[in-house]
Amino acid sequence: MSAEASSSTGDTPSISKPKELTASQYDELSVPERQAYDSARAAAQAAEQEALPYKWDQTLQNISVLVDFEKGTRAKELDVVIKRRSIKVGRKGKEPVFSGELFKDVVEDDSTWSLEDSQTVSIHLEKQNQSEWWPHVVTSAPKIDTTKLVPENSKLSDLDGETRAMVEKMMFDNRQKALGKPTSDQLKQSEALDKFKQQHPEMDFSNAKVNF
User: Fold this and answer.
1) What pTM did the predictor assign?
2) The domain containing residue 58 runs over which residues?
3) Tens-of-pLDDT digits for all 212 residues of the chain?
4) Is residue 165 located within the same domain as residue 125?
5) Does 61 share its domain with 108?
6) Which H/E stretch holds residue 27?
7) C-alpha angle 177/180/185, rounded to 5°?
């Protein structure tokens, strides 16, 4: 799986992103309307990510960031600082190419950077929580739609049964939460309550308040 964002020279055309719909509003759309809505949001998201001064992608375990500098750049000229919840990348004595608060905590000791081909800074950020997608690297950047992300099929099939079930459950729950719908656990609780009601028709649940 790869959630990718690309750098730009500033020539990317501006694309207006459609207003985000609620889950109920989206459900009311016809199939062609949903397709048009999804396509428009995807195009706007791609334009936003294209305008960033770096490229990035992710797995459930880590984030990879690539930042280009002038050819012939040396590592000692760079100022790259990775903290548990922040990052800064740039040249020493100059404004950072980008910096800010990370979306979530990273493992500092396992997060590294290197300079490749005297030009590209390659950054590896090890996620502290390895069961969720990041919508952006730093909180000031535009978000991607994480409900559309899934692990590569080959990687998902390589997981053992228990781990695969956990990942698939996490993916389903993330999509449900984003749409304002019940998670898998909440659906199970609701089903259990419905079954209990059927088994005990003599009980009055009309005034019962149940919070999942």
Assistant:
1) 0.66
2) 23-149
3) 444 443 333 444 456 677 888 888 888 989 899 889 888 988 999 999 999 999 999 988 999 999 999 999 999 999 999 999 999 999 999 999 999 999 999 999 999 999 999 999 999 999 999 888 999 999 999 999 887 776 654 455 666 667 667 767 776 776 666 666 777 777 777 777 777 777 777 776 666 555 55
4) no
5) yes
6) helix 23-27
7) 50
